[in-house]
Amino acid sequence: MPWKNFTGPTVWLISAAILGAVAIGWCNPAAAAESELRGIWMWGSQVKSRTAADQCITQVDAAHLNAVFLLVWYWGGRTFYHSDLCPMANDIEPGYDPLAYMIEQCHRRGIQVHAWFVNGKCDSHLGHEVLERHPDWSIKNNDGRVAWYDFGKPDVRKFQSDLMIEVLKRYDVDGLHFDYIRYDHSPVICYCKRCQDEFSARYGFEPRYAPLPANAKTDPKKETLRMTKWAEYRKSTVSALVRDVYGRAKAAKPKAQITAAVFTPLATAEDLCQDWPNWLREGIIDFVVPMAYTSDDRELARQIDEWKTIDPQLDRIVPGLSIYKRTSKAMISREPQQVLAQYQLCLDRGAHGNVYFWYGNLSQAISQALVKRYYPSKVPVYRPPALR
Predict the structure, then answer these.
(1) What is the SS3 assignment for the chain?
(2) Using CA atoms, how far apart are residues 37 and 55, in angstroms rounded to an integer?
(3) Contact 353/38 with Cβ under 8 angstroms?
(4) Which sign does the torsion angle of CA 308, 309, 313, 319 carry?
């Protein structure tokens, strides 16, 4: 109906409704969000008793966050749940299962729980239950210190896959979350006979993992190819674990979300054999969370723009933001305004939410600022569109 046909009180009511709706949008950009991932990484060691867990859940709920990524297995090879494969962590409250309790209490409040695993790093001053039984599963640094799991070994991949699927089948988790799903920064890598033989069988020639001396009498193109394919082979061993867990998880619980914390920018991930762009292309991960922990907003914008070359709508890439900053003495919470600014930057570029690192730095000031500006009410957890 033409606008000129509306007169008097009718015009006033329509105008007020329009202005009210616009004002709500201006004052609170997230008010109309139908769904959004508002995640937080939390360590299992922070919920070693019911009382501690209740405190964490209360704070998460008050901040209107809707997903906890709970670290349930990491460096010492111990779990924060009942497992047939590894012993439970020390100092857990008797008769208490941290993961089960977190799931029960969080689900009552509409908060998801994703089981978070540190897959690669295995260095621990507390000893290591798994590597004491399987010392050949590790890669050592130059000083002989155990630092990393060797994803090149099928037994390592099977063990970690079994461990993750055990949680999925035994607990009502909303997802499984990979971390350190890569190799170390260290130049020391596995170059054992088994890896060399597998490489040779796959590519038809022997590998090379380090440049030859300048005066070496060899074909430069051939040697470059050997090095390039060796890097490709190492990436494939990491991707093999992701692929196996994803396939088994979807067969066991199709609605479970399989996700990963990953490195950014892309060149860094590539150097660490973490081929997450191809995990997305192949459809062996539901979404990734690049750990964009920079304090430089311009750098954050550059990184997001780079991710959009892979996923233009950011359907399967959720920014991981830092809520901490390092000082000379400690890791402390960031100022709320910086957290809000980076949230807005992600929102402006089309992000469907964020995951914050980490719960230990979720200050009251940050929680209150998020609720006041962006999280005035609870919303459902964002779920990426179904893979075709």
Answers:
(1) CCHHHCCCHHHHHHHHHHHHHHHHHHHCCCCCCCCCEEEEEEEHHHHCCHHHHHHHHHHHHHCCCCEEEEEEECCCCCECCCCCCCCECCCCCCCCCHHHHHHHHHHHCCCEEEEEEECCECCCCCCCHHHHHCHHHEEECCCCCEEEECCCCHHHHHHHHHHHHHHHHHCCCCEEEEECCCCCCCCCCCCCHHHHHHHHHHHCCCCCCCCCCCCCCCCHHHHHHHHHHHHHHHHHHHHHHHHHHHHHHHHHCCCCEEEEEECCCHHHHHHCCCCHHHHHHHCCCCEEEEEECCCCHHHHHHHHHHHCCCCCCCCCECCEEECEEECCCCEEECCHHHHHHHHHHHHHCCCCEEEEECHHHCCHHHHHHHHHHCCCCCCCCCCCCCCC
(2) 21
(3) yes
(4) negative
CB contact at 8 A, 171 and 100: yes
Tens-digit pLDDT profile for the chain (388 aa)?
444 444 454 444 444 444 444 444 444 554 446 899 999 999 999 999 999 999 999 999 999 999 999 999 987 899 999 999 999 998 999 999 999 999 999 999 999 999 999 999 986 666 688 988 998 898 876 566 667 899 999 999 999 999 999 999 999 999 999 999 999 876 556 666 777 788 778 888 777 665 555 666 677 777 777 777 888 888 999 999 999 999 999 999 999 999 999 999 999 999 999 999 999 999 999 999 999 999 999 999 999 999 999 999 999 999 999 999 998 889 999 999 999 999 999 999 999 999 999 999 999 999 999 999 999 999 999 999 987 6
The distance in angstroms from the start CA to the end CA of the chain is 42
Closest CA to 21 of 31, 6, 11, 12: 31
Q: What are phi and psi of 177, to 5 degrees?
A: -130, 115
Pick from 107, 108, 258: which is nearest to 168 by CA? 258
| Residue 195 CB-density burial (10 A; 0-12 exposed, 13-18 middle, 19+ buried) | buried
Total residues belonging to the chain = 388
Structure tokens given for 238: 């990491």
